[in-house]
Amino acid sequence: MPELPEMENYRRLLSEYIINQPITQVEVNREKSLNVPADQFTQELLGLRAIFVERRGKHLIFHMNNGRRLLLHLMLGGLLYYGSDEDRPDRSTQVEITFGQHTLFFIGLRLGYLHLLTAKEVEEALKPLGPELFDRRMSKERFIELLKGRRGALKSLLVNQHVIAGIGNCYADEIAFEARLLPSAKIQELSVEAVGRLYDAAVKVLSEALEHGGYMEAPFMEGDAVTGGYDEMCNVYDREGESCVRCSGVVNKVELTGRKAFFCPSCQHEQ
Prior knowledge:
By secondary structure, the protein is of the alpha+beta class. The protein has 7 helices and 10 strands. Helices cover 27% and strands 21% of the residues.
């Protein structure tokens, strides 16, 4: 599932290629991915331009020049591809929006969605989200305060969008590894020092993932050499059975509250 670095990578690329390009064609292949009838969706979008693309957590918000918004959540299996009809992906698409001469293909929106909303409706939809690690108001002190009184496993907290927005399975495991904490470590039992270490680890991992285009390898467009660059940098995620890059241990995989969790039992601990 695309997480904060992947969605921010998409935001940066979209901001470079689609801004102020008129929407010349809309094709809807799966109406369930929308919140309005396909005909209404198409009629409202034709001729509009995206003037700004914003990210909030794992969501993208396309600001249209008439004040309307497109709210995108790719969920599990979702991805974007931008190109011409000649290099269109060999995948089924749920929605296609043509900006000028090139089309933005929305792929894998079986669980995800693309909703046409007002600014107020977007604000209401995103209101439950917690703060982000890169929010200008966030600091190590605020992060420590944010976790006070929380209970449960570390991984469950990191992926809880109501507590911290943008982190999913991959980066929760990578952050726990960087902080030398087990994904099963109990939040309520962590020392202030351990929580501070967790904050430093989260900032480091997410910053590196942002710099290298996230871990999802599917390119955004022909010639894209940035997207997916972090995949080879993952230390534990999807590395079951491999040697730990930090010690002599072996990466394990367990199921933790319904989610896969990858970790090294030799150098990750409860504190």
